[in-house]
Structure formats: C-alpha cells, structure tokens
C-alpha cells in the first residue's frame, strides 16, 4: 500500500512527510485552490525531494500542452486529472503515468470506472462536493470504494485523517491512500503532529516497509 500526502506548498512539510514514510507528494497546479503552488516554487521543492518519492501533479481543466510543460520541467512521476477531462485527453499521456479521478456522490456507479481501463493506471476516489476538486475534508461511503476495487486500482481519498486512517485501511485495503486536509494546520500548511500521528496509525499495516514511490506495479 502506498501513501500520498497531497497539497504540498513548501519544502519543509514535504521533506517531513518523506522522512515519516510518504511514497508520494502531491502538487496542486490549480490556481483557485488554497493549496496551489506555482511551477517555479514547485521546481525548487521537487529538486530537494528524495529520488524514490513520486511527484504527482494535480490538474483541474488545465490544457494538455500546459500539463506537458509541467511534466517536462518538473519531472513529474504521474498526473492526476480532476475536472471531468474527456477520455481522449487522458489518452494523450502514457497510461502508466495517468491517475483518473472519480467523485463519489449518492448517484455514483462503480461500473463507470471501466471507462478508464485503457487510459489510466489507477483511479482516485474522492468525495463529491459542488465547486470543489479535492480537499473537501469529508469522507464518502467506503462501500463504494470496496466495490470499485473490482473495476480499477483504487487510491482512496476524501476526509482521511489520523483518527480514521486505520479504519479506512481495514475496511477498504486500497492500493494507495491520499491525504491532504486531514493533516493540515491550515490550507496549504501541514501539521507535523498530525502527520506524525497519521504514520503512527499506519505503522501496523506497513511492517518492514521500504518506500518505493508509485511504480503502479
């Protein structure tokens, strides 16, 4: 199981998460997000990260050429597509580097995830909330994530924090976990005590573990 800490905006938080055992950090390139990071700042940040830690770029309705520019300049490991991207856009990128996103609401149908088989290596499930693309701080019914495992490699997101992370692992056992607002002191600023407690809660599920990034094997 992999652990991604998303919404990084500064090197201090990123390095601390890596020290605790994060396999990946998420960088949000959506200007309306309180966790937005400009490409210039991101370049300084990723240059100091351990080599084994994956760098995931999070994009919302960003044109493909602009995404490619970020990939080239930052050496991104994978790209996370929010905002109802058409499948033909996702198909322009190598499948092994594409994370599709499905927002789970009351009308979510797990069978719809089959559309991503040919274009994405994994699907991130997040809580559906109008006007927001991640960072809701709210969970959804995890039964949807359990059922979704039959249709895709699942990255579980949405309201995860030190208090519910163990239950999430036991209940869902996803390919990966994605945590953002649940370990923050404020939007874009991580809380070291929460991060430490998160990994303490995860320790029983990650015995003798060596971080290997997001190879999607």
UniProtKB/TrEMBL annotation:
UniProt key word rRNA-binding: no
Catalysis performed (reactions): N-(5-phospho-beta-D-ribosyl)anthranilate = 1-(2-carboxyphenylamino)-1-deoxy-D-ribulose 5-phosphate
Gene Ontology terms, MF aspect: phosphoribosylanthranilate isomerase activity
Database matches in Pfam families: PRAI
Family that this chain belongs to: Belongs to the TrpF family.
NCBIfam families, per the entry: PRK01222.1-4
Name of the protein this chain belongs to: N-(5'-phosphoribosyl)anthranilate isomerase
């Amino acid at each position: 199981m992999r652990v991604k800490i998303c919404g990084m905006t500064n090197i201090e938080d990123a390095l601390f998460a890596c020290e605790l055992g994060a396999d990946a950090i998420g960088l949000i390139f959506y200007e309306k997000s309180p966790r937005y990071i400009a490409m210039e700042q991101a370049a300084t940040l990723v240059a100091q990260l351990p080599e084994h830690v994956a760098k995931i770029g999070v994009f919302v309705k960003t044109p493909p050429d602009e995404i490619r520019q970020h990939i080239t300049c930052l050496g991104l490991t994978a790209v996370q597509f929010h905002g109802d991207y058409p499948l033909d856009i996702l198909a322009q990128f190598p499948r092994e580097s594409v994370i599709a996103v499905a927002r789970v609401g009351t009308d979510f149908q797990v069978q719809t995830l089959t559309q991503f088989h040919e274009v994405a290596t994994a699907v991130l499930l997040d809580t559906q909330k109008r006007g927001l693309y991640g960072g809701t701080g709210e969970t959804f019914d995890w039964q949807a994530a359990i059922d979704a495992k039959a249709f895709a490699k699942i990255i579980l997101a949405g309201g995860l924090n030190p208090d519910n992370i163990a239950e999430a692992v036991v209940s869902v056992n996803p390919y990966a976990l994605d945590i953002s607002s649940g370990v923050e002191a404020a939007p874009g600023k991580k809380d070291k005590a929460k991060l430490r407690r998160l990994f303490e809660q995860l320790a029983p599920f990650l015995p003798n573990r060596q971080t290997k990034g997001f190879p999607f094997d």
